[in-house]
Amino acid sequence: MSRVEPLSRQWLDVGDGHLLHLLQYGKPDGIPVLFLHGGPGSGCHASDLALFDLQRYRVLLLDQRGAGQSQPSGKLVHNDVLCLLTDIERLRHWLGIERWCLAGGSFGATLGLIYGGLCPQRVLAQCYWGVFVPSAAGRSWLYGSHGAAKRFPVDYRGWRNPVTGTNETELLQAYAQALQAQERRAVAAWCRWERTLAHPWTLLPADYSVADRSCALIENHFACHHYFAAYTLMRATLNRWPPSTQLLQGEQDWVCPPFLLQQLLAKQQQPVALQLIRGGHHSLLDARMQQAVIAAIAQMADNIEPSITMRTTE
Q1: Distance (Å, rounded) from C-alpha 292 to C-alpha 71?
Q2: Which Gene3D superfamilies match (predicted)?
Q3: Do 234 and 118 lie in a common domain?
Q4: Last-in-domain residue among 199, 226, 253
Q5: Kindly report the CA angle at 76 between 70 and 79, in degrees rounded to 5?
Q6: What is the phi/psi pair of residue 276, to 5°?
C-alpha cells in the first residue's frame, strides 16, 4: 500500500499522566469511523487503513492508553476498561462528532460492543471481527492448560518455559514480574504464543520491539485483573447493541474461538447475526478474514450514505 498522508495528527491529554496519539485519514467530511485496535495494547498501524475506503470514510486511528505512540509507553496505572471507554466518549466530544461508526477486532471489538451498548444513540453502525469474550473461560482458553494449549501443546510449553507456576493465575502473575523486569525471554515467549494462535503455521519474527513489550505488559495487566469486569459489562449491555451491528469470526480463530462468542450471543433477546468465515483465523494477515472485513466495512458505508444524503437534502 502506498503511503497515505494523514489529515491531522494530535496528542490528547486525557489526564492521569496519559497522552493519547490520534491520526485522522481519509475524507474530511466523510463518514466518521473510530478504529479500535486490539491487544489490549497493540496500537494502530498504517496497514489498518487498508480496511477502509478513504474516499468515503474519515478514519480515526487512536492509540489507547500506553499503546502504540501514546505516552508513556506501556503505562499500567489508570489503564483499565472504564478508562478506555471514557476516552472513547471524550474523543467524540473533543472532535464534535454527534454520531459515528466503530470498527475493530479482538479486544477492540470487546471495547466497541460495550461502548455500543452503553451509548447506542451515538453509533451509526459498528463492525467487529475476532471478538474477544473476556470471561473466565476466555482467559483460561488463552492461558490455561485445557484450551488452546491442547491444540498447540509444544507452543504452549514454550509459553510456560520462561516463568514458574502451577496454574493459570500463578503463570500470569509470574509473567507480570518478568515483563516489568524487561526479561527478553518472557517478552519473546508471550508474543510468540499470541502470534502462533493468531495466524498459525506462519514464519514468526526472530526479535521483538519496544512496542511488543508494551503490548505484552498491557495484555498481561488486563488478564491478571480479569479484564476489569469487561465480561460483566458485555452481558449487561448486549441487548442494547445497535441493530446495525456486524460480527465476523473465523472458524479457526484460536485466540477467540467462535463457541465462546456464540454462547454470549445466545443470551440476547434479539440476536445479532454472526458471520462465520470458513477457514478464517484471528489475524487479518489471513486473506479470508481481511477480505470479509473489508466487504463488511464497505457494506456499512453503503447502508449509511443514503440516510446521510436524505438528511442533507431535506
Answers
A1: 33
A2: alpha/beta hydrolase
A3: yes
A4: 226
A5: 75
A6: -90, 125
Same domain as 275, residue 144: no
Cα–Cα distances (Å) from 227 to 84, 171, 205, 223, in that order, read: 12, 16, 28, 6
Tell me the DSSP string of the chain: ------SEEEEEEEETTEEEEEEEEE-TTSEEEEEE--TTTT---GGGGGGS-TTTEEEEEE--TTSTT-BSTT--TT-SHHHHHHHHHHHHHHHT-SSEEEEEETHHHHHHHHHHHH-GGGEEEEEEES----SHHHHHHHHSSSSHHHHSHHHHHHHHTTS--SSHHHHHHHHHHHHHTT-HHHHHHHHHHHHHHHSTTSPPPSS--HHHHHHHHHHHHHHHTGGGGHHHHHHHHGGGS-SSEEEEEETT-SSS-HHHHHHHHTT-SSPPPEEEETT--SSTTSHHHHHHHHHHHHHHHHHHHHHHHHHHH-
Q: Are strands 100-105 and 31-36 parallel, antiparallel or unpaired?
A: parallel
Number of domains observed in the structure of the chain:
2
37-74 pLDDT tens trace? 999 999 999 999 999 999 999 999 999 999 999 999 99
Range name among 94-103, 108-117, 246-255, 263-272 with the lowest pLDDT average: 263-272
Cα–Cα distance measured from residue 43 to residue 36, given in angstroms and rounded to the nearest whole number = 9
The pLDDT tens digits for 231-277 are: 999 999 999 999 999 999 999 999 999 999 999 999 999 889 899 99
Question: Which of the two residues, 205 and 14, has the higher pLDDT score?
Answer: 14
Task: Give the number of other CB atoms < 10 A from CB of residue 47.
Answer: 11
List the domain range (segments joined by +) for residue 154. Answer: 138-226
167 in the same domain as 126: no
Helix axes 184-198, 153-160, angle to 10 degrees: 160
